[in-house]
Amino acid sequence: MICRFILAHREEFGVAPICRVLTGYGVKIAPRTFYAWRKRPFSARAVWDATISGVLASYHIERDERGRRKPEALYGSLKMWAHLRREGIEVARCTVERLMRVNGWAGTTRRKKIRTTIADPTALRPPDLVERGFGVEAPDLLHVADFTYVRTSSGWVYTAFVIDAFAGRILGWECSTSKHADFVVRAVDQTVALRARQGNPLQGNTIHHSDAGSQYVALHFAETLWLNGFRPSIGTVGDAYDNALAETTIGLYKAECVDEPDSPFRSGQVFAGLSDVEAATSAWVHWYNTGRLMHRLGRIPPAEYEATYYAARDRSVTRK
User: Which of 38, 196, 246, 308 is most enclosed, with most CB atoms within 10 A?
Assistant: First the structure.
C-alpha cells in the first residue's frame, strides 16, 4: 500500500523526499525498499485482477459506434459474475464484487412503479383466476398484462406488455400516444401471432390476467380475448401483488430502458416521441428475452429457458 502511494506521487515529489516525510510521520521506508518493490514481478492475483478489470471495463466504459454501453452494464455483481461464467470466464463471485466496488461500477436499480391503469368501478369484471399464483409448469398456461407510461419531449407515450408467466418471456408489446384500449389489444394480437409463427399456437386454455384498468375491461378487449380463446382474469382493484409478475417486468423496463439516462437501448438521453420509444423498447425486449439473465430461471434468459422446455417435451414425445 505504501509503495503504491509512492508510485502514484513520485513524479510530483520524488521518491526520496516522500520517504523522508513518511519516515518523519512514523512510516519507516527507505527508497531502496520502494525500488526493490518496483522490480518485483506482479503477483498472480494482481495479473488476474487486471485481466478481469479489463473485461468489466469493456462493459462499463467501452462504447459502440453510437456511444452506447453494452446491455450487460446494467447488471449488478451477481448477474455480471453469472454472465462471465456463461462466457467461459471462470472467475470467483467475490472477485467480481470486489473489482466492481473498487471501480465504482454498479447495476441499475428499480424505482417504485407509479400505477397508470385506472379502474372503472361500474364495469363488469372477470373473476381472479390466478390469486397471486404465478408459478406455472409450461408456457401459455398463464399470460399477464399491464402497461406503463414514458415521458417524451412531445408528450406521453404508453407501452403495453403481455408476458408468459412460465419463463417471463415478453410475447407482445405495443407503444401508443393514446391510452385507448386499442393498443393493449394489439399487444395481445402480437402474442397470438408470435406463438403461431413459433409452431406453438395457443390451444384455447390460456389465462390472460391483468389489473382492473379500464382498457382491460373494455368491450373491445374482452371480445379480442374471447375470439382468441383466452380465459380472462382480473386481479383485485388497486392491489399490485395481484399482478406482481407484470409489475416486476415493467419495473425492469423502466429502470433499464426508460429511466436510465445512459441506457444501452436509447439513442439519446431524451425521447423525442413515439418512434424513439418504439426503437428503444424493441431493442430492450429483444435483449430481455434472449440475453438477460433471470435469477428465478437459474440465471439464463427467458427464451433459452423456454427452448429447454420445448426440447425436453419433444424428446419425450419422440420416445413415446
Answer: 246
